[in-house]
Each structure stands twice: as C-alpha cells, then as structure tokens.
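FAQ
Q: What does a multi-component entry look like?
A: The components come first, one per line:
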Amino acid sequence: MYRIAKTDIPSLLAAIAAKGDLYLPVNTAGKTNFDAWSEDANVDLDTLKTVRSGKDIFFPQSENLYSCNRTDGKLSVTAAELEDKDFVVFGMKACDVRGLAVLDQVFLSDPVDSYYAARREHGTIVSLACSKPDTSCFCHAFGIDCANPEGDVATWFAGEYLYWLPKTEKGEALTAAVSSLLESTDEKAVEEAKASIRAIQEKLPLKDLSLDGWGAEAAKTKFDSPLWEQLYKPCLACGTCTFVCPTCQCYDIKDYNTGSGVQRLRCWDSCMYSDFTMMAHGNNRTSQMQRFRQRFMHKLAYFPANNGGMFSCVGCGRCVDKCPTHLNIVKVIKAFEKEGK
Amino acid sequence: MQELIHRAKSLLESGEVVRVLGWRKGENDWDVEPAFFATTEDLEANFIYNGFCGANLSKYMIEASKLDGKTLVFLKPCDSYSFNQLIKEHRINREKAYIIGVGCKGKLKIENIDAEGILSVDGAGYPDCSETLTVHTLYGDKEIAYKDAMLERCHVCKGKEHKIYDELLGDSIDTCDADRFAEIAKIEAMSPEEKFAFFQAELSKCIRCNACRNVCPACSCRKCVFDSTKFDSAQKANTTSFEEKMFHIIRAFHVAGRCTDCGECSRVCPQGIPLHLFNRKFIKDINSLYGEYQAGADIDAAAPLTSFRADDAEPGVGRG
Amino acid sequence: MPVTENWKPKIVAFCCNWCSYAGADLAGSSRLAYPADVKIIKVPCSCRVNPMFILRAFEKGADGVIMCGCHPGDCHYSTGNYYARRRMTLLFSMLDYLGVENGRTRVEWVSAAEGVKFSETMNSFVEKVRSLGPSVRLGDLRCKN
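Then the predicted structure of the entire assembly, as tokens:
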C-alpha cells in the first residue's frame, strides 16, 4: 500500500501523462466525462458518476475501421491502426471496471475484436473507490464492492491522502514508474475508508434489490408478460440509457462518403432506435414495446444465458439518473417482483 | 392533488373519458413518469402531481388521438401552448381530448439540487409547495430555495394562463424572474471566437441520444431526416464535431416558428446542454424581424416561416 | 490545409432555374469572367434550398456558400423567394450566433438580364472568402483527406 498527498495529485497525473496517454474524468461545460488529460484540463475526481462511463475509451462511440480512397483512378484500402501505445485510465469506479468484464465477454471471445483487444492490452486501469455512493447505486446486487474496486491499481481517498494499491503486473509497472511520488504506508486508513463506505452501502435505498427470477430462465418466463405493455409506455425511444450504460455493446456499421472515398465506421447503436438491426426485409422488432423489452431481456436474461449467468448490468444507476421519463432497469425489476412473475 | 384524482375518477366513471394521461409515482419523489391510467384503482394508487411533474404531456396526445374514445389530459399552462401548436399542425384531434388545465407553481429538476445521495425532498408537493425545499440525503439534511431548483424554463415562465382547456383545477403562480432573451443577448455580444468556443464546449458533450428530439412536442415527423438510412452522416456516426452542429442547427431550424419554448429539450439532455439557446435565438430573431410571435398562443395566427412581407429584411441583416 | 498564395476557395452557388441560372448563362455568353472555383447547383427556385443544403455544402468542404434567386417580387412561382428570404435570414443569423465567420454565406438576387451583376457578385464573394481562408468551423475534417 502506498499513498500520496491530495495536493500532489496534479504532479502524479502529470507524471503518468508523461509516459503515455492518460484518460480521466474531466469537467467540460459543467458535466464530467472521461477525457484526455492536459495541463489545463479541469480534472474532476469528486463527481461520483461521469455522464458517460469509461467504456468509450476501450469501445469509442464512433471509430474508423478502415478507409477506402480513390486517387488518380486507383482504389486503396487502409485499415485503421490498432492501438499500440500504453495508456492509463484513471478514476474508474468499481461498476465501470466490472462493465469492462462484461464487454470482454463479447469482444474478447472468439472471434476476438482486434480493435478492442488492442486497447485492453495497452490500457492500465487505476480504479477509485466510491467515497459517497448515491441513491441510484445498486452495484452490490451484482456482487460488486464499490469500497474495494477491481482494476490494475485500486485507489481510495481518505483524509488528506490518496491511497494506492497495485493489484496486477500492469499495476505494479505503473506504480514503479511513479514510485518517486508515492510513499509506503499501512492499510489502516484504507480499512477505515472501506468500513465507512460499507456503512453507507447499508443505508442505500436499493440495497435489497433482488434479481431472483432473472437469469437464463427468465427468457421463457418473462418474454410474454403483459407487464411490458405497461412499462414501456412513457419511453421516448431515445438512446440515453444505452449511451450512458457501461455495458451496452451493440454497434452499427456506417459508411461515410468523404467525397473522394469511403470511411467505414463502427458506431454505438441503441436497441431503442427504430432502425436497430434493420435489414433488407425490414425490422424484426416493429414496436417500441418490443424494443424496450429487448433492452432489459438482453441485460437480465439473454446475456446471462450466453455467458454463464453473468448479467450485463453493473448497477451503476446512470440510466436511473438520466432517463428523460424516469424509466429504468430498477423499475422493471421491481415491477416483476411485485407481480411475482 | 386529491382534487385532480377525484375529478379524473369521476370523468372515468361517467364514461366521458376512457383513459387518463397524467403522471405516475416513481420510486422517489422526483422520478415520476408520464403515464396512461385506465382504471380508478390505478389512479388512486399511482397518480401523482407534484413539483417534479415537469414532463409536457402534449406529445403523448398524438398517439392518444388515434385511440378510441376521449383521453383526459392534464396540461400545465406552458404545456397548453404545445397542445395548441399540435392542433394547428393537425397532429392531434381536439375532439379526442378532455383537457384539465392544472395549476403550476414552477417545476423542479432534481439535478438542480446541489446535494449527493438524495433520499427524499419535502416541500415539492402541489398545491402545498413551500418556498424552501428540505432535502434529506444519505449525508445529512439540507435546505434549498424552491426557486433554485426550478427548471430553467420556469425562470422565464410564459404566465399562468392556460391557452386551451375544458376546465381548470388549481392555482398557478407566474414564476418568471429573468429576461427570456438575456442569455441570447449575452452570446450575441461575444466575438465570433468566443461564440464558437462556447458552443464547441457545449456541443462536444452531445452523445446523439436524440432525447431532445424525441421529447420535443414540435418534432412530430413520422420519419426524421436524421433517421434516414439514405442520409450518409446518419445520426449514429459522430466522429467529428460537425455532426452535432448540423444536427442541432437543423433540429432547431425545423421547429423555428413552431417551437413554443417549452424547454423540454434542455430538461431532458443527459449532458446538460442548454439546447433552448438555439430555439430561443430563432424566436428572438423572429420577434425582432417579423413581429412578436408566440407559437401555440393563437391557433389562427400566421406562422412566421409560412408567411412573408414584401419588405422583409434581407439575409445577413445586421452583419458588419 | 495550409493557406498559400495559390489557395483557391471552393464556392457553392445555389442558383434558381429562372433568373439566376439564366443570369450566369448570360455572364458566360457575354464572356464576363468569374472564378472557375464557383460550382453552380441549379435549383428550381431559391425556395428549394433547404438549410441543410447549405450546411452539407460546408460539411463536404465548401469554403463559402451563396444563394441566388429572382428579385423579390419577380419569382417565377410568385412567392417562393420571399419564403427563401426568411429562411436564409434566420439561418445566417444562427450561423453568426455560432461564431462562423459571417462572410462565408451570402444571398444575392440576380435576374436573367443581370449577367454583369452575376459576374461581379461571384468575383466579390470569392474575394471575400479568399480573405477568410479555408473554412474550418463548419467543415467536416474527414472530407479534407
């Protein structure tokens, strides 16, 4: 266990950034999102939840896969280069780190997604424990401990210090690179911080949220429930829930005409959109109810069915906070629980 | 609130209306949902009307107009402008609606309460709201002025008058305490570089979730141009900053002269982009160039972009 | 793109079929010069120009966009250009508001008899845009490859 005074964090960040790219929560025009570090970036490590999760560093909202260009009548195809430089993501919360484990199931299983795999290989994650969990948090329902986050290095704020614990080889390497700024210390302060976080967890309104009845079997029992018809009604069919979610991984491929060529882009898609999985014959989900159901069934039934019981929700509560009409996964889970179905 | 439930129940029981469009209780005081109620039991158990019922229900009437029978809809004073505008555009059927003009004392936004771990908010009820909200949080109690938690649009309230209704229930307060165009004028006074930097910072946050478009009562096209598969910078691929600009300019332009300034776009933006700054710029220009116009105030008034005068200003007016 | 002595701006001109395009024709047949970098897009009426056309032109790499139509009162369809005038007034005002250099957009009414005006308008507009340099604020970087 190491520590560094809070006042020295800017030098720590500068030292990390000197070795390679550093991404961390930055406040731009009043909202905090993960962004690249710079001298004058407004770094914000106090905000509990960035609007977008850290997933876009590994799986960007839009990325170029390859470009076709026509010059002097000749066509050339250039594949986008894979990430080949090490970078650090600082300040990811326990839920977001687990979110990457969900994405790994999708992108690192055969056939491996080389773009994602390259970023995972070169990225070192410094996680940060949640000092002040919020009302909308329910990560513990998925076995996540926000007092003890996973990652290559875990960190905690306690008193006037940031505590630093390397957990993996990558984490050890990063620690060695910035060791001149860190001092060794014992676990006492961190144990106290953990205890205080866990005391708050006990008071969270969603602490008893139960996932009983969900999982692989739910596909059979819940698909035809009349509840969906009631639950979806206020849905605006926007993509807010999808785009703030740390685990949503559906994407679309779009071709963009640059005038002298074409760029093939991979971009986030949302099952809430009417053109989601649109094919030549049309769309296989024709109503908003079906699209709404897809989102929750995917997270709580289909994904666990295909991934050894792992849910594709980490309880970060972003959709709970951000849905324009206040629909969310918690309301869906509770509605089914109430009906006993 | 009991008054509203009572009245809705009797209209439902008498068969005058077959469903009620209102707001449904959530898990907390603030996460209310727009909702249809079909039974008196459902109304009794789940209907709510409080300071967090900011959602404008007008747009849901487009779907409700296609259903059999009348729908009872609750409209706040500012919502009634949107409803009128939708009638003008033949998107909703007046005959299918029974409108209760419900009182409003300013609506709140939970994000405007600067506190972490909010458990409950006292004082946000209706009609008995208090000047000070008491916020109970995981980390202690806190007091905040009602006004400080209000939506931006309530600070430029259009007044407590309903523009359309069948009956009125409850009192309203005109919560206007700011100049509607002050922010616009402030931006207009900036240098081009400052303007560009300001909008660049705001729009760089955009995640193209389309919440602003989908919530907008004026955005009622069956197929949006930004959802067209033939449009090659389609909504989803926003690798450069231009597409956000294009989207937001066109979004605002398409509703120019029809936007009632209901403020729903700014309310729902997950990234807190002040989208009303686009719409209100058009409104300000329309007012100064073509005469005062408030969309939704008068169904019969000629709309500014579908009318003209021979001596209209030339494009580029006011440029140095 | 670096601005050099020889840099030539890309200009898109939307011209209505009845007046301005005929004006351009007259400029041509009268051998009046205007820069070859002006690409004319013929539209049935200035009213056909959707604000999106203007933005798309910038997106695809234009450095300046000009719209020409019949003089107010002379529209082949009686009133089309009056509506177009209001739209462009609002759009240009919005672009100014967003901090786009305001010399990059212009509307000019050119009749079929005004070959001279067409040529002068294009020359002065090209000069104006040249002085502003390449459009960055409304361009899509991908189109510059």
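Q: Is there any commentary attached?
A: Sometimes. For this entry: Chain B has a mean pLDDT of 93.
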